[in-house]
Write a structure and sequence with these properties.
With 204 residues, this protein is of the alpha/beta class. It has one domain: Alpha-Beta Barrel (TIM Barrel), CATH 3.20.20. The chain has 6 helices and 7 strands; from the N terminus they run ββαβαβαβααβαβ. The chain has helices spanning 52-60, 82-95, 108-112, 136-143, 152-163, 180-192, and strands spanning 8-11, 14-17, 69-72, 100-104, 126-130, 169-175, 196-200. A 7-stranded mixed beta sheet has the order 1-2-3-4-5-6-7. α1 runs parallel beside α2 (82-95). The chain is globular. The relative contact order is 0.14. The model has no long low-confidence stretch (mean pLDDT 92). The structure holds iron/sulfur cluster (SF4). Residues 23, 25-27, 30, 32, 76-77, 105, 143 line the site of iron/sulfur cluster. Iron/sulfur cluster (SF4) binds at residues 23, 25-27, 30, 32, 76-77, 105, 143.
Length: 204
């Protein structure tokens, strides 16, 4: 039984924030399938949903100036707890100049049932959105979203385009295991929306 409440954890000179277990996807490559932790950290499954206060209390114990970046990431999709994310980011912005990054599946509007891009303004400096694949069919096969009858690939791209207005740096990402041909096609998709594509190394 996992007992840890690993709300924040360090990898190298970065601090990662793990604010929820929730996610509407079930990606084939998700770290959830690869054991309890991420890159050697302690177990990330949260035994209960932390409140914004708990998250902030947790990071108060850390020297936030000492990190190169503070990243909302973790075991679930951070925008599933958008209010907690925003309150925490607001606190971070009030105490440090360390850049804040959000790693997301880009489905925040579907998850929160409203237009959310403007809500990141002033709170997040970098958004890294999982493109995952070069078209809707391949995307659904890889991410297996729980939203039915919705083109999640188009929703994610639309979010990426709109959030550029409010966040200084937006990037799309794919994992290198998708193969060279898919990476090339994904590059064309990223180019078509004018967003940088980052190819991430798959860590088994
Ligand atoms: S979106 Fe992220 S947390 Fe959710 S299943 Fe995919 S990889 Fe895992």
């Amino acid at each position: 039984m996992i007992k840890a409440m690993n709300i924040s954890y360090e990898i190298g000179d970065k601090l990662y924030l793990n604010i929820t277990n929730k996610c509407p996807c079930n990606c084939t490559f998700c770290i959830r399938h690869n054991g309890d932790g991420a890159y050697g950290s302690d177990p990330l499954w949260l035994e209960h949903q932390p409140t914004a206060e708990e998250v902030i209390d947790n990071i108060k114990k850390r020297d936030l100036d000492s990190y190169k970046e503070i990243i909302f990431c973790g075991y679930g999709e951070p925008t599933c707890e958008l209010e907690i994310l925003k309150e925490t980011a607001k606190y971070i912005k009030s105490v440090t100049k360390t850049p804040v990054r959000l790693n997301t599946n880009g489905l925040s509007d579907l998850i929160n049932k409203r237009e959310t891009p403007a809500e990141f303004k002033g709170l997040v400096d970098i958004i890294s959105i999982s493109l995952n694949a070069s078209d809707a069919k391949a995307y659904d096969e890889v991410t297996r979203p729980s939203f039915k009858g919705v083109n999640c690939f188009e929703e994610m791209l639309s979010f990426a385009k709109r959030v550029k207005e409010f966040v200084p740096e937006v990037m799309l990402t794919v994992v290198d295991i998708i193969g060279e041909e898919e990476i090339k096609k994904s590059q064309a998709v990223a180019d078509s929306v004018g967003i940088h594509l980052r190819v991430r190394e798959y860590v088994d």
